[in-house]
């Protein structure tokens, strides 16, 4: 994966260049049944890569776990690298789809960050494999790894910007704040979502959000 | 590395049990020359693992980079896994030794966190391989990976506790705050230290520390 396929629409993607080449044949399923098979393959890949890691994982084990024929795999993917890359994007989107509706229902930006962290911690408890999969992308497909964080943080940055425009948080909230909050959430998820099954994630989110809202300064 | 060697003095370490076994023969260099050779091997390992990753790295390439004989390697390490494990601990200690004196010179706890982040961002710029090495430990030697973060965060927690006792920060500062700050620093280091060579790390540290000190709340 020295040459990871760029995101659709990104600079250097097939659409952006003149040559829509045969390598990037459209493998998007066109039927409901196809979409179900693809989803089964991705769910099976999450278990296989999550349990065994990229190097020990195999395509035949993925199709066995998915209960699909080997041929179905090659309908959608050309290689283990390709399904891994699709899985990183899939996990990133699953996380987004889990967190976003809850965050959007928040009454203000500080509450949105509170709900966002709590929702993320809940997601980690249900999908413990997310750390191993996203983190292994650093070694298997760096472009996917970086894209996951860049897209996630960009959503947070836009949220902060909108909150600042509404006067709910400090006016100078910026990209630096968004990366700081993302790192905070990822580490709290590792420590209290992944490593400690019994931690009270509601209490963790409350403490972290209070620090985010008010800082470390002394309280009277 | 399913059975990583425990830290000296930790529960389960040879000293803690009755059987000081032959497997854990003491390979600590006893001479200045030996210490220099060991350090050369670790420095070479940082470059080799940092550039090629664990799987593609080789012992012969490490000794070639270090300018030492292959026999010297086996004086100190039994395997590629063992030098990798030693390297993770070495990087963790290098980072600690870089940051700690600067942090200890700070006039108060909020300033200490500011200096700690700035010092960390400077370290990342000088040792870009630290991300790849620590992060790959998640897959090569999970115990080392977890120990790196646990010992780093424990130092931060103690610092917060002492700052709270001195009345410099909120009295309820806890382990959750320490993990949150650690995550913030690691992500800012990745984004602005590793990915962006031109970012003004002084400005990044200033923004992050101001958020840490005062929170996201509106300023008048």
From TrEMBL, chains A, B:
**Organism domain of life:** Bacteria
Annotated Basic and acidic residues bias: 22-34
The record's listing under InterPro entries reads: Homeodomain-like_sf, HTH-type_Tx_Regulator, HTH_TetR, Tet_transcr_reg_TetR-rel_C_sf
- What spans are recorded as compositionally biased (Pro residues)? 1-11
What keywords sit in the KW lines? DNA-binding
| Start and end residues of each HTH tetR-type domain | 35-95
Q: Where is the composition biased (Low complexity)?
A: 12-21
- Look up the DNA-binding region in the UniProt entry and give its residue ranges: 58-77
One GO term in the molecular function aspect is: DNA binding
Q: Where is this region: Disordered?
A: 1-34
The entry's protein name is TetR family transcriptional regulator
Q: Give the organism's phylogenetic lineage.
A: Bacteria, Pseudomonadati, Pseudomonadota, Alphaproteobacteria, Sphingomonadales
């Amino acid at each position: 994966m020295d040459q990871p396929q760029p995101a659709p629409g990104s600079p250097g993607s097939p659409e952006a260049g003149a040559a829509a080449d045969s390598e990037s044949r459209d493998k998007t399923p066109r039927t409901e049944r196809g979409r179900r098979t693809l989803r089964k393959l991705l769910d099976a890949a999450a278990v296989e890569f999550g349990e065994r890691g990229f190097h020990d994982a195999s395509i035949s084990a993925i199709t066995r776990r998915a209960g699909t024929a080997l041929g179905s795999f090659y309908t959608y993917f050309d290689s283990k690298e390709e399904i891994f890359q699709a899985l990183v994007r899939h996990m990133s989107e699953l996380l987004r789809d889990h967190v976003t509706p809850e965050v959007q229902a928040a009454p203000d930006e500080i509450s949105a960050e509170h709900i966002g962290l709590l929702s993320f911690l809940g997601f980690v408890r249900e999908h413990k494999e997310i750390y191993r999969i996203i983190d292994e992308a650093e070694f298997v497909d760096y472009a996917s790894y970086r894209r996951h964080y860049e897209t996630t943080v960009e959503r947070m940055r836009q949220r902060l910007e909108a909150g600042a425009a509404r006067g709910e948080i400090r006016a100078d909230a910026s990209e630096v704040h968004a990366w700081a909050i993302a790192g905070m959430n990822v580490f709290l998820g590792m420590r209290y979502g992944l490593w400690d099954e019994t931690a009270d994630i509601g209490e963790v989110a409350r403490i972290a959000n209070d620090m985010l809202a008010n800082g470390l300064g002394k309280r009277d």
